Structure formats: C-alpha cells, structure tokens
Amino acid sequence: MESDTTYKIELKRKTNWILAIFLLVWMIVWAVVTFGFVYSAIDWGIMEQLAFPIFCLLLSGIFVFDRLLWQLNGKEVVIIDDKIKIFKTGKLFTSKNNIELYEVSHISCSDDKKEISFMARIYGLRGGKIIIHYLGRKTRIGQSISIQEAEIIAKVLSSQIENARNKTRSDF
What is the pTM of this model? Predict the structure, then answer.
C-alpha cells in the first residue's frame, strides 16, 4: 500500500549552551590527546599493544561528537501515515522508531524529571514530555518543550493517529 504523509511534526532541540561548550572543549582536548597517543604509539612501535585503548578513545570521541551535534542541530521528527515514524536527526547516528498504528494504546504527557535521570536528559539520551504507549512499552518525544506544549501536541498526535487509523481501515 502506498502512503501519503498524513501528518509531520518537527521538534527542535533547544541547545544547552553550557553543555555544548563543555562538549566542544572535551572534543578539542580529546583530539589533542588522541593524536599524541597515536603518534607516540607509532613512534615507539607499540601500536599493536595499544590498539584497544586507541579504539576506545576513538569510540568515545565519536559518541561525544554525536552528542555535540545533537545539542546543536537535534530534531525529533514524527511522521504519521500508515505507521508512526519517529526520527532523531541532526546527529551522526539517526535513530528511528516505527510503531504500527494499531499498536498505540494512548498518548500521555508527563514531566520526565521524575522518571529519567538527569544525565540521560541533559545529554539527550532519553526523555521527552510526550509519551506514546504501545505494546506495553513507552517511547518519549519532546525533550525541549514545555508540559503545556506537550499537552497540545499530544492531543494533535492522538487526533492524527485516529485519522490515519480510519484512513487505513477505509483503504481495505
């Protein structure tokens, strides 16, 4: 079945400038340390012995760069057509979640400060004030919006999901 986008919403992540500057400084220090470490390992001929620490250094740099990009460019995109598609874009690794329309039981709002750890919220790893409940699980969106905005968006999303369900039923 071919689908036309029924509804699309983009929620821009508000930049936490203190964290963004911290991550940028971390990246600069990381680059200097990693370059020095790799240069020394090659110069001393011990690259094989230090392969794992260098690999770990590279992975940590990639992770922090991904978080920095999320702080600066992050967007949560929700598309409702024959499925609910949730993307986190504006970073190295775009995360994607597809939820079938019939799987959604309801949408609610909650301040994520009580349920999500401070570190997970500030780095943008988890959290959001809009909760989509499906198959006994939850996915959260709206990391940078107020609870009032979340309530309005949740009502609109619920309505759009119901419209998409009705459209899908009528297509059969």
Answer: 0.81
